[in-house]
Amino acid sequence: MSIVTADGGLTALGYGLSILAAALFFFIAGMISRNQKTKISARQLVFCGTAMALAYIASYIRLIPKMPYGGSVTLFSMLFICLIGYWYGVRAGIMTGLAYGILQFIQEPYVLSLFQVCCDYVLAFAGLGLAGLFSKSKNGLVKGYLLGILVRGLFHVIGGYLYWMDYMPENFPQQLAMLYPIVYNYSYILAEGILTLIVISLPPVKKGLTQIKALAQG
What we know:
Layout: H1 12-33, H2 42-58, H3 77-88, H4 90-107, H5 114-126, H6 140-164, H7 180-200, H8 203-217
Helix pairs in contact: 2-3, 2-4, 3-4, 3-6, 4-5, 5-6, 6-7
């Protein structure tokens, strides 16, 4: 059975696989983080709240104009959510990303259906918290950030296939129609990602983030 219809849409199997992907995402995240301490300290709450606030403010500072159906290259807004996952683990990262996704929805709501909202806001931004998978790895922030933004893009792409294909520009090559959600979403996500990786790799910034991590973890 195909997951794609003749006109480029998704079949029932495609919808089912998308829902399964979302469920699997939360299941894996839960299994990974089950052994982490559930108690959240006042310090962690302060840093999580501050990171979310900074991400929200940074999302208004756009380095390129907002794209027609959402998305833009911002002033490193995704980094702040990934930092929480990197500092405190997957669970804290996902919860902070989920709360941030709700703020993003309040900021600029695009509503086509409940599941589209879940893909574009809840799951996409919660995915940034998976940066915590590399919290104990060498160059963990870089690896975690890359994973976080790629997962965010994945859920935007799923939402694109499910709900946004009708908005594809007429001048986009029809033979490449199935690539449209990928090109649209990863164009701005990877552009911001590359800029962010360049900045956090600068020695003064890298040193500063290391010091902030030590302060955050107390």
